[in-house]
From TrEMBL:
AB hydrolase-1 domain segment(s): 25-131
First-level EC class: hydrolase
Keyword Hydrolase: yes
Family, as annotated: Belongs to the AB hydrolase superfamily. Epoxide hydrolase family.
Keywords in alphabetical order: Hydrolase
Entry EC number(s): 3.3.2.10
Organism lineage string: Eukaryota, Viridiplantae, Streptophyta, Embryophyta, Tracheophyta
Protein name as it appears in the record: soluble epoxide hydrolase
InterPro entries, A to Z: AB_hydrolase_1, AB_hydrolase_fold, Epox_hydrolase-like
Annotated source species: Escallonia rubra
Pathway(s) annotated for this protein in UniProt: Secondary metabolite biosynthesis; terpenoid biosynthesis
Catalytic activity: (24S)-24,25-epoxycucurbitadienol + H2O = (24R)-24,25-dihydroxycucurbitadienol; an epoxide + H2O = an ethanediol
A UniProt-annotated Pfam family: Abhydrolase_1
The keyword Hydrolase is assigned to this record: yes
Length: 304
């Protein structure tokens, strides 16, 4: 960890915290919710030892990066704008891109809006979601999955934050990072996001007490509003990206998802992945095999 260097860079009107290590072709890592640059520390060290320059920012709203209060400041154009400005500040004209969860969503947008800056993409968890011109995403989810669906529950400003505040931050982080319940993630208000405070939580081998403490310290300091604002900007993204309706992702792509990932088990996703829709919308998709049940080093598999 001491090999990883940290600095703050002013980009696109905000101060962004960036972690870096290594020299060579650059890989830009984009984390998800509720995560940080820290999620990529092992991959950064491993790939830097193979001759890559690994760059992992705290995205807008997270960690030591600025967090504008309004959800309207978290559109794909803001996030991609931050990243384009970051590449310019770092003197990078093209990068390999790696994303997970909301980082994967923003990686898809990055490839949609600025494919000229991307050598290739490795995305985890969240498949490309082509814009449906007939319906906004949040009302569609509410209709299909109900008001208790977690994305719907995140929409009202301050509501989820108030629920989160009633739960120990370390416990909340542990629940988010270790949940392995396939299927729709519904959270009725009478249950709340903390669940039963007396139920034991066991850390898996890949997550240490030190890791949870690091995440919790940053979210205790920054709060969750920045991360939740990505969900709250979903309909605004839909409105703003109308000109890109029907546009394909045209960079080389590898995709990884776990068999118990809630995204993979969301109704419609498996059919989209395995019955031609994904390949239609991402024509240079090189690998979207069955969901993995063990670690896989796919970054070495991309050759561009």
């Amino acid at each position: 960890m001491e090999k990883i260097q940290h600095r703050n860079i002013f980009v696109n009107g905000i101060n962004m915290h960036v972690a870096e290590v290594g020299q060579g072709p650059a890989i830009l890592f984009l984390h998800g919710f509720p995560e940080l640059w820290y999620s990529w520390r092992h991959q950064m060290l491993s790939l830097s030892s193979l001759g890559y320059r690994a760059v992992a920012p705290d995205l807008r709203g997270y960690g030591d990066t600025d967090a504008p209060p309004s959800a309207a400041s978290y559109t794909a154009f803001h996030i991609v704008g931050d990243l384009v400005a970051l590449l310019s500040a770092l003197g990078l004209d093209k990068v390999f891109l790696v994303g997970h969860d909301w980082g994967a969503v923003m990686a898809w947008y990055f490839c949609l809006l600025r494919p000229d800056l991307v050598k290739a993409l490795v995305n985890l968890s969240v498949v490309f979601s082509p814009r449906n011109p007939k319906r906004k995403p949040v009302p569609a989810m509410r209709h299909l999955f109900g008001d208790d669906y977690y994305i719907c529950r995140f929409q009202e400003p301050g509501e989820a934050e108030e629920e989160f505040s009633r739960v120990d931050t370390k416990r909340l982080i542990t629940k988010f990072l270790t949940s392995r319940r396939p299927g729709l993630f519904r959270v009725p208000k009478h249950v709340g996001f903390g669940g039963n405070p007396n139920s034991p939580l066991t850390l898996p081998s890949w997550l240490s007490e030190e890791d949870v403490t690091y995440y919790a310290s940053k979210f205790h300091q920054k709060g969750f509003t920045g991360g939740l604002n990505y969900y709250r900007a979903m309909d605004l993204n839909w409105e703003l990206t109308a000109p890109w309706t029907g546009v394909q992702i045209k960079v080389p792509v590898k995709f990884i998802v776990g068999d118990l990932d809630l995204t993979y088990n969301t109704p419609g996703v498996k059919d989209y992945m395995h019955k031609g829709g994904f390949k239609r919308d991402v024509p240079f998709l090189q690998d979207a095999t069955n969901p993995i049940k063990r670690n896989s080093n796919v970054l070495r598999g991309i050759r561009v």
